[in-house]
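Homework help thread (please don't just give me the answer)

Our assignment gives two proteins as sequence + structure token strings and asks us to describe the second one. The first is just a warm-up. Here they are:
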Amino acid sequence: MKSSEDMEIFIKVFYEAYGGVSEDEPYGQLPLSYGDIILGLFEDPFKETKIIYYLCFIINKPKFPILT
């Protein structure tokens, strides 16, 4: 991710993938503050830590967010 706008897309897809959209979601309903934390870490990362964000696309649509 190169910008805050990229991260907004990442967070939107993150909630779609892991946010409890379906009843059988193993992660349950994620609180909205989780997205705020992800965005905050992107904008002001810890100096000792490197977080890499991946956003996988299927047919030009973002589908799977991954952070390591």
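The one we have to describe:
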Amino acid sequence: MLSGADKRALEKRLKLLFTRYSELDDALWYLSTDPAMIRARIRQYQVELSGMLKTETIKEEVIRDDITKSLKSFERNLLKYIEADEIAKRLPRLDALQESVYTQYAAQIDTVTNHISSTLQQRGAQFRAMAQAAEIPLARQAAIENYTLRAVSVGGKQYNGVVLGEFWDRMLDEYGTRGSIMYRNGANYPLTTYLDQRLQTSAAETDRLTSVVSASSLGLTMGQISRTGTTDSCIYWEGKYVFMSEEAKAQTLAKFPKMSVLQSIPTVQDVKNDNTHMFRWNCKHRILPTAITVLDPTDFAKEFDRTAAVQPAVPRRVNETKIYEQITGERYSPKEGGQVEKMREAASLDIKRVSYTIQ
């Protein structure tokens, strides 16, 4: 995580960058500039923004500290197995994990800045097309004053300024600005808000990646999802067993062929691909390693049945708005009827293999 001083310095640099590219939020600039020049300027902005975010948020010392903390936590969870020599202590190299984390974060930043660039391109193209409806025909230009129109002259053309302004406001509402990013639910948030959540998300992702890679190096194939007392759609997975990968699942099924219940246990990627919020944006859940797969089949079955039977209590009150948006991918609006019912239906259909239901 970045320190408070580092975050303030980053926000200051972002503001300076936004100022240098102020034309990207200027409606008249889009009308008076050649489309090829617009694309080039947006691309230039994307490259600078991406470079700044990588330099300021993917710091080597921060990644190293996060990984070191995760490795220590990983060891603590398996201490009794290590001391009993049931598993060898051969954790992965720190530099290899660091490179993996850096590559993953850099790819995420590229995805975000590509999305911002694409959004600005779409907004500009749509606004130019809509502006045609605000253009004032030559036959009416002489009567502008009589019609009390606020005319705007751009590139030798006259536009109805009021209508043009309304079009641009609509574009800002729909696509956001050069300093914002659109989330999955369609809402636009300031880039600084995104960065705060990006840093929190990255810390959790580092911990999960460290667990998966470390488990693989130790020959461990399973883990359990941590419990945080959440009230959003993550409650469907809290405390559940997961396989670290498809390969890990295949190895475990081969070792315990009589444990048919293992077939229904998902991999970490399966859970991330589900319609819940688990392992997604701003999720703080961890994967707690377990060494029960090193046991013999009889002891494994007993330990699995014992731990799998202990389930967290579902909170009496859940955040139905969050759950609705996370599962359906749509924005929740209390003005529209039937949304809670739709959320419940989506939950029961998409997560039917999980025992929890919203009461």
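TA reply:
I won't write it for you, but here's a hint about the kind of observation we're looking for: The radius of gyration is 26 Å.
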